[in-house]
Amino acid sequence: MSDFHQNGIITDFHNLTHRSVDSLEADLVQFSRQRPMSLILPSLYSELEGPALNHIVQEIAAAPYLEEVVIGLDRADEAQFRHAREFFARLPQRHRILWNDGPKLTALDRELEARGLSPQEPGKGRNVWYCAGYVQASARSQVVALHDCDILTYDRGMLARLFYPVAHPHFNYEFCKGYYPRIAEGKLNGRVSRLMVTPLLRALKVIAGPLPYLDYLDSFRYPLSGEFAMRSDVLDGIRIPADWGLEIGVLSEVQRNHSTHRLCQVDLADSYDHKHQPVSEDDAAAGLNRMSLDIAKALYRKLATQGVTFSAEDFRTLKATYYRLALDLIEAYDHDATMNGLTLDRHAEEQAVELFARNLLDAGAAFLDNPGERPFIASWNRVRAAIPDVLERLHDAVEGDNAPGCAGSYKL
């Protein structure tokens, strides 16, 4: 059970009473009459064969307030797409699968690429971006939530709590971020957030001075969580990063476009576990190695837009400051884990910090060497300005792929 303390510049919704899921959902059914709700599920085909998604779909099927479920399916051939249709057919809600590798969507993507508007690389960011476009084209919801498909500890109460602050008709929140403790199998997890993002934000405050943006990010209990909800029109104007900086990039975009009084976070669960990324010390293009590089670059780029200047010397100072703060935090985490009967490998923690510290310099060098890099996918506002009927065409492509006949039955 969390406390009731409001310790940042955004509102924090706590889990003070463990209110029942049935009670939350009864409210959401009422809210849905004024604010219909959609859910986006960005998924690799391999996750249909993994240990988490089958249970997630069973839980979502029991959510009575959902208007629509939009599944972004990556790395699937035609046979796998047909299997995905059967897999998700159990959902009683209206649901659509974006077959991102299918001929209809790849043809549209080629046209966007010819105009310089297509996502530059495959991945979650691209998947989410296309799903966001379809949600706008469908125009069936006023609130949309998103979460990953590898959550091993999932229950539908998480989804209800994620939707609640934004769906409530008498609340004025436009964006809600989920948080939770990363604890599983007696271990303290969440290394990138604990050992990289938190000490990096505090080091940047030392180097760049007090900035509202840094205070804003430091207000989030778990800034790298993949769970958030927002008003549907928020999707229209945000630029989604294509790389591992997705979560930080989305937080940056909503802070740029909206008052912090309209942003919040919510406690979703007492524990949370999902697929763990390897550290990949020897491969800068994979795992936590790649993730930490992309996150650092995302932060540098955002600070540059606010007038912060960086030099090679600044990045060396930042590395030293970060390293000292991170080592201090390792000791605090170790003591906290011990008191709670959890395990924590201090040697592995310090190895991770050493890798992250090196990556702060590498990300800084990449930032200085490539000032023209375009990490963000164009907003749908911009895409519609270039191709006025693009959302209608996206909608028709998805509806064509999901038309009845091949497998499963679909609510039209």
Please state the CA-atom Rg, rounded to the nearest Å: 21 Å
**How many helical stretches?**
15
CATH architectural category: Alpha-Beta Complex
Q: Quick one: CATH class? A: Alpha Beta
Question: Can you tag this structure with a few keywords?
Answer:
10 strands, 412 residues, eight-stranded mixed beta sheet, alpha/beta, 15 helices, two-stranded antiparallel ribbon, 49% helix, disordered C terminus, Spore Coat Polysaccharide Biosynthesis Protein SpsA, Chain A
Task: Write a structural description.
This protein is an alpha/beta fold and 412 residues long. The chain has a single domain, classed as Spore Coat Polysaccharide Biosynthesis Protein SpsA, Chain A (Alpha-Beta Complex). It contains 15 helices and ten strands. The chain has an eight-stranded mixed sheet with strand order 1-10-6-9-5-2-3-4, sandwiched between helices. The protein starts with 10 loop residues before the first strand and ends in an 11-residue tail after the last helix. The C terminus is likely disordered. One of its GO terms (molecular function) is transferase activity. Keywords: Transferase. InterPro entries: Nucleotide-diphossugar_trans.
Summarize the structure.
This protein is an alpha/beta fold and 412 residues long. The chain has helices spanning 21-31, 53-61, 78-88, 103-114, 124-138, 156-167, 191-208, 212-218, 234-237, 246-257, 287-305, 312-339, 346-369, 380-386, 390-401, and strands spanning 11-13, 37-44, 66-74, 94-99, 143-146, 175-179, 183-184, 187-188, 228-231, 263-267.
